[in-house]
Amino acid sequence: MPFDVLLAGGLGLSILLFALAGGADFGAGFWSLLSRRGERAQEQRELIESAIGPVWEANELWIVVSTVILWTAFSPAFAAYGISLFIPFVLAIAGILLRGAFLAFRIEAGEEATGGAYKFFGEIFGSMSIITPFFLGMAAGAIASGRLRLNENELPADGYFQPWLGPFPLIVGILGLATCAYLAAIYLTFEAHGNPPLQEDFRLRGIISGIVLGVLGVIALPITRSDAPYMWNGVSEGLGLALMLVATLSLAISVGLLFVRRYWWARATAILQVTAVFCAWAVAQYPYLLVPDITIQDAASPQPVLVAMSILVVVYVVVLGPSLYFLFRIFKTRSAGREEEP
Amino acid sequence: MLSNLIAARAVFGMSLSFHIMFAALGVVMPFMLLVSQYLYLRRKNPIYLALNKKWTTAFAVTYAVGAVSGVVLTFGLGLFWPRFMDFAGPMIGVPLSIEVMFFLLEAIFLGIYLFGRELLSPWVHWASAIPLFIGGYASMVVVLLANSWMNTPVGFTLNEAGEVIDVNVLEAMFAPAWYAEVSHMAVAAFEAVGFGFAAVYAFGMIRGRIDEYHKKGFFLGMVVVTLVAPLMIFSGDHTARQIAVNEPAKLAAIEPLFETKEGAPLSIGGYPDMEAEEMRFDIEIPNLLSILAFDEPNATIKGLNEFPEDERPDPRYVWWAYDAMTGIGFFLATLIPLFWIFYWRYRGVPTNRLLLSAIVLAGFLGFVAIELGWIVTEGGRQPWVAQGVMRVEDGMTLAPGIGVAFFGFALLYIFLSATLVWLLKRIATGAPSEEELEGVQEHQEELEKKEDAYAV
């Protein structure tokens, strides 16, 4: 059995889950930063905190899962990322550190108790939420674009800035942020069930960010073609192209559904859109972990480690699946059905 | 500017010494939550509920800082030590991957415990702290498995180029040092955090807040340390033996013992004169080191001279940390019988200011001892990152600008610590008033009545 390919699939899945769950939390931070004017600004921020408060730590840990799969099963690729993309990754983790800590501080400080500090904690939480998806997106762009080449010592041949400071990584960073914001707005329409004005606020934000995401996607096309030729080949033919078409269609439908206030379906199609883009990316990048120098097979650890890691992934699912189900059942089904209670 | 090696070591040393305190809290605080809530549910004394709620709030902020600094460390291994991870990933990756699973389990159930008080029936809410405790405790165990591999690396085959070609996953996971490290850290965490809890309430009592709330909080902390402190004697002894057998260079450095000796003495205090290669102004207890290490008064203990000069750990990094750690251990151990003597004399929780002050000091020193122990185990392994296999400088990143990252992270941790301390001080509002307690209890009783309204 090709354990290396299976584990690469597990790696991809954990990154996708991070994008869908953790990404939306970062997006919510972005909206929290923007909620400063208007009569409902306070309510909007409170909704955001109550929505992500119980789940953000669990959501964030998907990125840690992908990190450990990478370093256990594909350690040379992990080393190459760590060295060459040191700067964007350090900025991304600084964002993770500050955003999480200050969200928790803000929730536990409580507004009445610590007025000024509450506001200050919120500013840090919001601004740091932007940094992480942007720089993680840039790093992903650098990995897929082929801009990052290694020399014979496995060091970046063109220095530590050139690989990620370029048009394709930049547009992927922006797309990453826009995707997070779009997902967050749609999830929040759901969270705001039972408070129509608040729901309308996030519906509008969802529509705007969906349109922005579409426009950015169009801008990304020529950039991909010139700056990330390998990706371009992958997404412009066969399965990659089909997935991109599914994604485009889902985005359009999802914005349309928001317009007609079908929130459950809008959320489902938004998740489908992100998943389809992600799968198209994965298809285009396969079999490389670093285009074009490191493949999955090149980087794979010895067989016993791959077997152990595959078993562990199954254990992850068995242990964490029911726990996550429990978590989301307690906090998420109730938030959706709150008004049905007596 | 700092050299990149020093900067990378400084960033990581700083991050770990920051994280290790929150890791200890993350292991023991869920236990304290379980105990206090159990006492409330059984005895219906609202004081326990008030303590439980306060501890939950404090845990929420300390856990968040622990979790995010843990995420930083996960990434940091790749960012600062990519060549070490490239080499060691297949061996230590498995325990670290298991760690992530328990970390996730802890995070999930923290969310449930923190926000589920009103949504879950009281006993289900209590039970949700069990996986929280298991997650924290097991995370600590598996992280130490990875660290023990660094101290005593086994379970892999290298080819001529020094690349790992085969791995025995289980052998690598349970390296010789694992049991000593795990048991020592587990006991240390309970002892430090137990004294930490007692210290918070002892401090309140010194400032005149002598009430049932402070007495109960103080007493719970003292019970925990009383249960674990005797284990520390065995664990410390076992750890020293393990080091003597598997990490002789470390033993020689912490003692320090420059020349190999039969019937080696235990030296206390003094300082290592590196020029003359001997200890000065120390107190020597004849043959004790040989007895402690091998149960044999005349056993031979390897000195630093047995190791090539460029492979010797520098005793100046570790000898003082080891002495201070054991000194603190003995200080903490003597406080416990003292506390119980006072308890017996006063027929209840003692409020003697001297004893309380000593326990406040102990609450601080317990954490210091954890840091010192970590300095001993890491410093005593130098210059290796994996004992005998890879030197620290061969494991580090080749990316430039690590010095800048060091200053950045230093500022960040200072900022975070300052905010955390400020916030915890605000959270520590003292005992709730009678009315508040009654209100809390009424609310809780209402919650218990509406059984059918719970999600679970």
Structural topology:
The complex is a heterodimer of chains A (342) and B (456).
Chain A: H1 3-34, H2 41-52, H3 56-73, H4 75-84, H5 86-109, H6 115-145, H7 167-191, H8 196-227, H9 229-235, H10 238-259, H11 263-285, E1 288-290, E2 294-295, H12 296-299, H13 303-336
Antiparallel strand pairs in A: 1-2
Helix pairs in contact in A: 1-2, 1-3, 1-6, 1-7, 1-11, 1-13, 3-4, 3-13, 5-6, 6-7, 7-8, 7-11, 8-9, 8-10, 9-11, 10-11
Chain B: H1 4-43, H2 46-80, H3 82-115, H4 122-127, H5 129-151, E1 156-158, E2 164-167, H6 169-173, H7 178-206, H8 212-246, H9 248-254, E3 261-262, E4 266-268, E5 271-273, E6 278-280, E7 283-285, H10 288-294, E8 300-301, H11 315-346, H12 353-379, E9 384-386, E10 390-391, H13 392-395, H14 402-427, H15 434-449
Helix pairs in contact in B: 1-2, 1-5, 1-7, 1-14, 2-3, 2-8, 2-14, 2-15, 3-5, 5-7, 7-8, 7-12, 8-9, 8-11, 11-12
In short:
The complex is a heterodimer of chains A (342) and B (456). Chain A is mainly α and 342 residues long. In chain A, 80% of the residues lie in helices and 1% in strands.
Protein traits:
heterodimer, A: 342 residues, mainly alpha, two-stranded antiparallel sheet, 2 strands, 1% strand, globular, disordered C terminus, B: 456 residues, 15 helices
Walkthrough of the structure:
The complex is a heterodimer of chains A (342) and B (456). Chain A is mostly helical and 342 residues long. Chain A has one domain (3-333). Chain A has helices spanning 3-34, 41-52, 56-73, 75-84, 86-109, 115-145, 167-191, 196-227, 229-235, 238-259, 263-285, 296-299, 303-336, and strands at residues 288-290, 294-295. A two-stranded antiparallel ribbon of chain A has the order 1-2. In chain A, helix 6 crosses helix 7. The longest helix of chain A is centred in the last third of the chain and has 34 residues, at 303-336. Chain A is globular. Chain A starts with a helix and ends in a 6-residue tail after the last helix. Residues 336-342 of chain A have low confidence and may be disordered. Chain B has 456 residues and is mainly α. Chain B has a domain at 1-174 and 400-456. Chain B has helices at residues 4-43, 46-80, 82-115, 122-127, 129-151, 169-173, 178-206, 212-246, 248-254, 288-294, 315-346, 353-379, 392-395, 402-427, 434-449, and strands at residues 156-158, 164-167, 261-262, 266-268, 271-273, 278-280, 283-285, 300-301, 384-386, 390-391. In chain B, the strands form five sheets. A two-stranded antiparallel ribbon of chain B has the order 1-2. Chain B has a two-stranded antiparallel sheet with strand order 3-8. A two-stranded antiparallel ribbon of chain B has the order 4-7. In chain B, helix 1 packs parallel to helix 14 (402-427), helix 5 crosses helix 7 and helix 11 (315-346) packs antiparallel against helix 12. The radius of gyration of chain B is 24 Å and the shape is globular. The model of chain B has no long low-confidence stretch (mean pLDDT 86). Classes of the chains: A mainly alpha (342), B mainly alpha (456). Chains A and B meet through helix 3, helix 4, helix 5 and helix 13 of A and helix 2, helix 3, strand 2 and helix 14 of B.
